[in-house]
Amino acid sequence: MACIAQFMVILDVSVVNVALPSIGRDLHYSATGLQWVVNAYVLTFAGFLLLGGRLADLLGRRRVFLFGLLLFSAASLVGGFATTSGWLTAARAVQGLGGAVLAPATLTILVTTFSGAKLVKALGLWSAVGGAGGAVGVFLGGVLTAYLSWRWVLFINVPIGAVTFLLAYFYLGEARRPVTDRHLDIAGSVTVTAGLAILVYGIVGTDVHPWTSAPTLIALAIGVALLAAFFVIELRLARVPLVPFKLFRSRWVSGANVVMFLVGAAFFTMWYFLSLYLQNVLRFGPLKTGVCFLPMTLFIVIGAQTSARLLGRLGVRTLMFAGTGLVTVAFAWLSQLDGTSTYLGSVIGPGCIASFALGLLFTPLASGATTGVDRSEAGLASGVLNTSRQMGGSIGLAVLATVATSHTNSLLHAASAGGTTVDDALTAGYARAFAVAAVLGAVGVIASCIVPARAPAPGTPAEVDAAALGGRERPAADAGIELA
Q1: CA-based, 20 to 30 A from 334: which of 120, 189, 202, 373?
Q2: What CATH number labels 1-178?
């Protein structure tokens, strides 16, 4: 049940990408406004993810799992009937909230149900299902959009959610961790989500209002002020903060999160712009576009398997260098797109390299983010890493979508008398965005230096967990877990 829910959450991210051009045409999204189909989901998911994990601790995994599943499925149904861009954007935001409640519960259900070798197998299945969700999503999105409509990329969640809800309701036992402080940091979740959303709104609005205009400056100022308030709340006011910033005193944790933020910013844009390029410029249909993404998802799996085998020999920092270096090369290659580019000649190669790099980075980033962290905070550290990826993706997509649209519009305006075609201008805009993504990859290479060259001495809490996940028996389960 936890794996099915994880499949649904991951599926929803990838299945939407192929449908973006159809959604944009039917609901009249602007060139930069279309990214809200992705970002409305990502922002609420990132902003409430850690709160969702806290709710699972306080109210019980089963109860929170069922609520998150119901909210996610209902929002999918409502979004599928959307007739305006605002309607769909709002539904996607609620979907993100449901995902933020659901995702932490899926993993904690496994951790509190299994131990030792069974836990290793369960986590392996959970990870494989997540990867399968990404792979199936791009193909399924093409099939649904081509033969039914883009609305079915949302409707598909309803039957899956209904079956999973019934299974969980009748067969899933409760698990709750007794806590002494039942405080929920709602203020922290609201300020960080609202701050990021308004900041992204200000950035996206620059296609209409210049950077120095009053609307843009006011939006950016409000966004920054809310994010500053979030830091004050976490550092001074919250009894149980969402993000205990003491974690970032560790170079392992801070380095992994910085790199994850940059990698998230680069990769969210790859799927977004390649989907638009294949359909808007190369005139591929949704189904063909979905098929074109399949080799890339396969290379994510290959990269993840390669990373798991090499981590013990090469170490975290070496793999982070290799992964971010390949990211830089791949996006630099994609930045060379022009009017003569083809899928086989200019897309599949760099796309597979970038996807392999993403898979290669999964294990070292997760390992780095939890190395040296007390076992009681390992789950929190993993949640912070996931939040960094989502926040990096949302801000990166907003910035790069604005960069691409601005460059395209400037070329069309300069060539209004003739010369540059719309396809050439679109391609140049996408290429400019990929060039910025390559710069982010290069910064990621530098940021990898934050991570120490050597791991802490064996015997630390993180090392014990790492040994357990390598197949040996883990220590006794956390005290205080009660299984109903």
Answers
A1: 202
A2: 1.20.1250.20
Integer angstrom CA distances of residue 238 from 224, 231, 241, 242: 19, 10, 5, 8
351 CB burial (10 A radius; 0-12, 13-18, 19+): buried
What residues have CB less than 8 Å from 416, skipping those under 6 apart?
Answer: none
For position 387, what pLDDT does the model report?
A: 81
pLDDT in tens, 155-183: 988 998 898 888 888 877 665 555 555 67
H/E element, 175 = strand 175-176
Question: Both tokens of residue 285?
Answer: 């249909």
In degrees and rounded to multiples of 5, residue 483 shows phi and psi of: -105, 125
Q: What fold characterizes domain 247-473?
A: Growth Hormone; Chain: A; (1.20.1250)
The vertex-6 CA angle with 310 and 47, nearest 5°, equals 95
90's CB contacts (< 8 A; 6+ apart) are 40
One-letter amino acid for residue 326 of the chain? L
Both structure tokens of 242:
């969402």
- Residue 355's nearest CA partner among 6, 14, 38 is 14
Element (H, E) at 460: none
| Whole-number Cα distances in Å, 178 to 57, 64, 105, 182 | 8, 15, 16, 9
Question: pLDDT tier at 73 (50, 70, 90 boundaries)?
Answer: very high
26: amino acid identity, one letter: D
- The count of other CB atoms within 10 Å of the CB of residue 355 is 26
Token output for 361: 């980075």
